[in-house]
Amino acid sequence: MLVRFTVGNFLSFNQRQSLAMLMGQTDHDDDRLFAVQNLHLLKFAALFGANAAGKSNVVKAMAFAHRIILLGTSSITNIGQYSRQEHANRDRTSYFEFEIVVKDRLFAYGFELLLADRTITEEWLVELAPDHERTLFVRNTQTGTYSYDPSLVSEELRPRFEIYLSDMQSVVSVLFLHHIVTDKQALYQSDSQLSLLLDIHQWFVRLTLANPTSSLSGYSAIAVENPKELGSAITHFATGISKVRFTPISRSLVAERVPLVHQSQFEQDVSTCLAKQQAYRLQIGPRLFLLRYENGEPHFFEISFEHDGQEYSYEEESDGTRRLFDLLSVMVTAQPASVLVVDEIDRSLHPQLTLQFIRTYLQLASVRDLQLIITTHESHLLDLELLRRDEIFFVEKDGQGSSVIYPFDQFQEHFDNTLEEAYLNGRYGGVPRFSSMYVPQEVDV
Length: 445
Prior knowledge:
The protein is an alpha+beta fold. Strands 2-1-6-7-8-9-10 form a seven-stranded antiparallel sheet. A six-stranded mixed sheet has the order 11-18-19-5-20-21. Strands 12, 13, 14, 15, 16 and 17 form a six-stranded antiparallel sheet that branches. It contains eleven helices and 21 strands. Helix 6 packs across helix 9 (319-333) and helix 9 packs parallel to helix 10. It is globular, with a radius of gyration of 23 Å.
């Protein structure tokens, strides 16, 4: 579960801003809270704001940090993503930190980097307890210094661990968290203490981030525990789908569809399926497949949909149906404590479909521990009979053009009108302000 995400000097975020999934003063729907230590965390958050206010930049910042954690600075394609509000920001570091829950313990993991040089400058992992903080490791590539808590690793493995850490003291392209879990399986076989780093890294591997077009191209693999549940969920959303079919297909035909750049990942996912004896939903370009473990072998099925007795492939479905199916497949098959972040959840969806999806999720969240964070323009979601006050956030530009995140829960007032009407009237910010109306004029050429 996510406790808090903080970003600074990135895109429209000049000063550090945080999205905190912490319970507010709301006193209903407590079954949508996740309790850990002395905290109660929200299982849902909706960010509202005008176009270009910065709500999508929250997701972009998470996705950027996610890629750095898993791939290093080689994943940076645009070095100009620092905040442009101040010219000096080009030479200042950008800040990213996730506060997360792993096995009922709280941790803050983060890093700073100089975007213009693709240079990681600092990295840290801190355990957060109710009465103290414990720095598990920290390194600074500019000074070449590092330190770690000896309790993180057994005494017999400390010399080897320190070698790994010292080797990374000036490495600016890869994070130590990634380095220490890559191709070092033997290091963890005899040291249960150090497996904490594997668990932290795995939290980021399981983090799912979706943008409006991420479901339509490329390659992705999502673990599914119950394919039948995956198939039945879509039939309840008035899409015209009456049945989901799983048609056997050969491994070679599936492999032919995998882009060359994703071939190694495909083979790894097949191996993971065999090792864990777990099913996976594979999206390969515009085609959809199910990978299952049966009798010690991987078996593949192509997923298609039935409308009035006629069969349609995934690529023949509308963008909205495909997007809804992707969202549902993640939601209904998610592992406990999974975190799903979706930018512009209402893109390509009818408003009633968006509402029904959120209602379905909120019902599921009352009995399962998972977390959904969305950005949206759909004002119909601003219903205090549907959402808790503390589940609503607004993003708006300040006077200097920097994005600010603020929770609706900070507004303590009673409502004579609906929240949706008050929001659209600009009472809480986060809506466009028009100074004039553009009227086309005849132009002499």
